[in-house]
């Protein structure tokens, strides 16, 4: 038995914090590789002759669809296999795809590699959320989740100065061409950012696994029998046309599946015709259909998990509410740099230093402060975590309006850090809230569900929506202001969740048992 096959049985302690630091680095790399497109966007736009809508698609939908969908089977695999190894494999894949993005010479090629980045990155968070929930006691779980989630913002902020510096330095070295392999600065930046992740993946592989359920007094084996066979079944459930085979084994499911496919296809065709953005909406429609197919299969093979997540209307409201929080976050984080470069005519290096680095520290501080506030508020009021999420919607609004109305770059970048801080407060709260809704063995799956909401509602729609409004109106400023059109709906959904969160937590065991928890499923699910 190797070191990382021996379970870490101690809850909390030095090793838990060491592992958290490693996962923080992984998540930072995750977002550096994802977010670097922002600082390189203007160069890519000129080089490949793209529109703002296409940039939004590259950053959002092309990445988000596969990130969200592969998060489903990978989240389920995290519930039944070595989670540290899963993170390491994902890191290796997305790092290779980021490096390969540097070889792109067309929109289609770059979109393909962005898909690969999304598939690789889908492995990280479900595994990390599950490990952290088992490594830390419940009273400090939101803090641990927030520290991990701070890696997101740390990487997001560092991607701007690093990407801007690499790209600009390369272009200065080869101003008249003659660069190795005829690479442009933005291409060299992708290569330089992606390759180190292949080495760091070896470090991540060495992490010791915590005992499942130890922090909640419900210990379970780390590896479940048939983990990879089950993963294959989950993969078939999200990849058309294998989805037909996946659901055909269950009574009446294929008929329902085909009816849903027809309705989704009709809706997507209508939206695509109205907007003219065929690639965006076909991609999105595939994602919606795949999610529906997966939930169908989950209902038959693991009724308790389906009951606690997709079979509970209030959790569906939570998925919509929490997911819509990221609509603003993802759009803002992508467009804040291109807006500055375009409107204030400043260099990539200047934007990276004045927005990226302060934004990284402000965001990391915001998500940690939000996590601490969430834990403290939750101890006094079961609605506390939801209230923190609502504050993250309301508090940034006046600063956002002043920032994007200002003609002063100094005002712009100072307020950018303020907004990064305030808007990041919700992240740890939502992750911890999701974990509170389910049993320990379901944490990888609910982590994947969190990513589904955040990516399909936020990442796939937010950057695209802003880019589309900017393309139609000719104003990126109007595109930015349009983001707050979603805020009233977000607050309404969160208010509904806040009224029922205590009941959801108190009845989860009862509802799981009513759905068959403790009874082996047809595909050998273990408890």
Structural class: mainly alpha
Proportion in β-strands: under 5%
Biggest β-sheet strands, sense, barrel: none
User: In the CATH classification, which architecture applies?
Assistant: Up-down Bundle
State the helical fraction: over 70%
The overall pLDDT average reads 87
Briefly note the CATH topology name. Growth Hormone, Chain: A
Q: Please, what is the CATH homologous superfamily? A: MFS general substrate transporter like domains
Number of domains: 1
Run of helices and strands: HHHHHHHHHHHHHHHHHHHHHHHHH
- CA-CA gap between termini: 24 Å
CATH class, named Mainly Alpha
- Spans of at least 5 consecutive residues whose pLDDT stays below 50 are 522-527
Total strand segments: 0
Query: What radius of gyration results from the CA coordinates?
Result: 22 Å
Count of DSSP-assigned helices: 25
Dominant shape: globular
List the helices and strands and how they pair.
Layout: H1 14-48, H2 52-59, H3 61-78, H4 83-101, H5 107-121, H6 124-135, H7 141-173, H8 185-194, H9 196-205, H10 227-236, H11 242-248, H12 253-275, H13 278-301, H14 303-308, H15 313-344, H16 348-380, H17 384-394, H18 397-405, H19 409-423, H20 427-436, H21 443-459, H22 462-473, H23 476-481, H24 487-506, H25 508-514
Helix pairs in contact: 1-4, 1-5, 1-6, 1-7, 1-8, 1-15, 2-3, 2-22, 3-5, 3-6, 3-10, 3-13, 3-21, 4-5, 4-6, 4-8, 4-9, 6-7, 6-21, 7-8, 7-16, 7-20, 11-12, 11-13, 12-13, 15-16, 15-19, 15-21, 15-22, 15-24, 16-17, 16-19, 17-20, 17-24, 18-19, 20-21
List keywords for this structure.
527 residues, mainly alpha, Growth Hormone, Chain: A, 25 helices, 76% helix, 0% strand, globular, disordered C terminus
